Amino acid sequence: MSELPLDAYYDLTQIGEVAVSPTGDRVALTATEYDQAEEEAVTSLFAAPTDGPREPHRLTSASGASAPTWGPDGDRLAFLAARDRDVERRVGWQDPEAEGEDGEADQDDEGGDDDESPGGDDEPKPQVWLFDLALGGDARQVTERDEGVAGFDWSPDGDRLVIESRDPTDEESEYLDRLREEGGPIETTRLQHKLNGVGWTDDVTPYLFVVDLEDPESDPRRLDDAYGGGAFQDVVGMEPHWGDAGRIAFTSCRLDRPDDTTVRDVYAVSPEGGDAERLTGGDLSHGAPTWRPDADELATVAGYPDDPPAPAEVYLVGEGGPVSLTADLDRTVARGGDPVWVDGAVYVPIADESHTRLARVETDGTTERVFAAQGRDRALAGFDVSADGSTAVAVLSDPTAGTDLYAVDVADLGSTTEPDSLRRLTRVNESLIDEFAMPEATRVEWESDGWTLDGVVYHDPDVDPADGDHPLVVAIHGGPMSYDEPVFSFAHAALTSRGYLVFRPNYRGGTSRGREFTAELTGAWGTAEVDDIAAGVESLADRGWVDPDRVFGHGFSYGGIAQGFLVTQRPDLFAAAAPEHGIYDLRSAFGTDDTHTWFEAEYGLPWENPEAYDAATAILDAGNVETPLLVMAGGEDWRCPPSQSEQLYVAARKQGVDAELVVYPDEHHNIGDPDRAIHRLEKILGWYETHDPAVDAED
């Protein structure tokens, strides 16, 4: 068994978004690679043919690309990127008296760096760029908004775009300039005063604008009644979609207290302007509005803000108002699962028995699970279909073979066996996989409190789990409303190549098994998941797979939260633990994180229901901590603030327990640049080795 060197992370390629061309002959994709010299992630746009395996063609050389979207003619491909201004917009004489979109004179040659983004910010803002693949050449810049572009869509005729962009008033612009140029002070009256990955919020309103592609010099035209709002507006966006019938759909929250709810409604507006029509009822959190081709009705995915364990459902929104098409399915739409219309039905990924798979939903509510060729040993990580309904492309994540694109004829999606039309298009991590062995995955089951639970055990291909007592890393998923299934993972390979088994338990409170399963943990953190995870570890020990004295905790977000409960309630379970980016004191988290609406839906308000908050707070039982703790946090994580990790760390150190705190200053609720991703794995592996009783025995 050879260890996977952690520096090999720089050789990793991770596929992001996919978009199939209108006729199905090509697929555009984003992929993230890692620049070792600059120590940064680089996301590029690629295109690949769908007729068979060929190296994807890199379209962008500058870093940063997202939201690839084909024009209806199939020759033009638009995308978002935060790049330096297009040369075409910088060269030549500029009228110093000409007004920019902020109402002030554009910079002349003496005004500073020509490459500086609009608005005086040193970092470029995301704009729409466009490739004309028939003509060739580099992408041209389509928009130049001071506040950037958050989303866009093509008109059915391909002559216009609808874009989403913030449009500050003069007073708001002055405030933003003070923040960016002088560093503050921050002034807010927003209830949702900050958001993870966004930072401090402000009062600037986003609007939809129409861009005329045939007159690139004209200013985008604002649709005055198409504006956004809501607690998570800056994260989810307005999601504009331009339908064949001519109207533009978007999401917004226009309730009396939009920051005090996660409700989002769907609206429709004419591209010529006028009043927007609300299409939904003001009680659900709608997203991903997608017009049915050649019809004035659309599909959305909606959840229930006041009922956290309820599955997200597919809704049909038409003349009769919104109607759930999957109410009887008792399965949630998988995270990031946008509906795709094909032949009058909706294809959407669902979470089903610890498995992300594809479902076909008819407008009468009939639902059929399709694409059996995927199997249960790899996950569906992305999906799209060509506009002509001929070709589907799926992103499949296989623990051993990697995460890659596969194409299949839409007509074969219902096949119960692997069809001849299924073809692999990419092998983006081929060199990494050829040089280093990736782990194999085995699904396991065990009993806990009357439930039959399942999980995944990863192991090196040269290791047979049944051969003996192996060290075990218990890697706990976040959410908690999520689930684990076999996937390709560099972190898994780093652990298994060093002799660990990696156990990913699907505890109660997760999704994919219906509302009742999820509700077991709602408003009761620190209960069912503790029993389930401990029972899963015990079952692996009973099989003879693991050494119960060499079990280590691992997990991010709720995976960190769960470790807080495990080390305070089951102090003998782990030899060492590494909770990352967690919450350990619900009362002090309320109002310092960005999820006050979620906490209220699950626990009420802390001053009205303090007992519920205290019952779900691990720090109050910190006197039981004996487990060595490596506590990790992001300095700008507003989902699980770093002060939470500080509290757990200080509580452990106060009692003389071996503990270390690692804070990445600029990191949000994520794993950031590659140097930090590598450092994180180095710290975790070192912590386990330091506190491994077998290593101590050898010494």
Give an overview of the whole structure.
With 699 residues, the chain is an alpha+beta fold. 17% of the residues lie in helices and 31% in strands. The chain has 14 helices and 38 strands. A hairpin with a 5-residue loop joins β1 (14-20) and β2. The radius of gyration is 26 Å and the shape is globular.
How is this structure best summarized?
This protein has 699 residues and is an alpha+beta fold. Helices cover 17% and strands 31% of the residues.
Write the layout of secondary structure elements.
Layout: E1 14-20, E2 26-35, E3 40-49, E4 57-58, E5 66-70, E6 76-81, H1 87-90, E7 127-132, E8 140-141, E9 151-154, E10 160-166, H2 170-182, E11 194-195, E12 199-200, E13 206-212, E14 221-227, H3 233-236, E15 241-242, E16 248-252, E17 265-269, E18 277-278, E19 285-291, E20 298-303, E21 313-318, E22 321-324, E23 340-342, E24 345-351, E25 356-361, E26 367-370, E27 379-385, E28 391-398, E29 402-409, E30 423-424, H4 430-435, E31 440-448, E32 451-459, E33 470-476, H5 490-496, E34 501-506, H6 515-519, H7 528-543, E35 546-556, H8 558-569, E36 576-580, H9 586-589, H10 596-603, H11 610-615, E37 629-634, H12 642-654, E38 659-664, H13 674-690, H14 693-698
Parallel strand pairs: 33-34, 33-35, 35-36, 36-37, 37-38
Antiparallel strand pairs: 1-2, 2-3, 3-4, 5-6, 6-7, 7-8, 9-10, 10-13, 11-12, 13-14, 15-16, 16-17, 17-18, 19-20, 20-21, 21-22, 23-24, 24-25, 25-26, 27-28, 28-29, 29-30, 31-32, 32-34
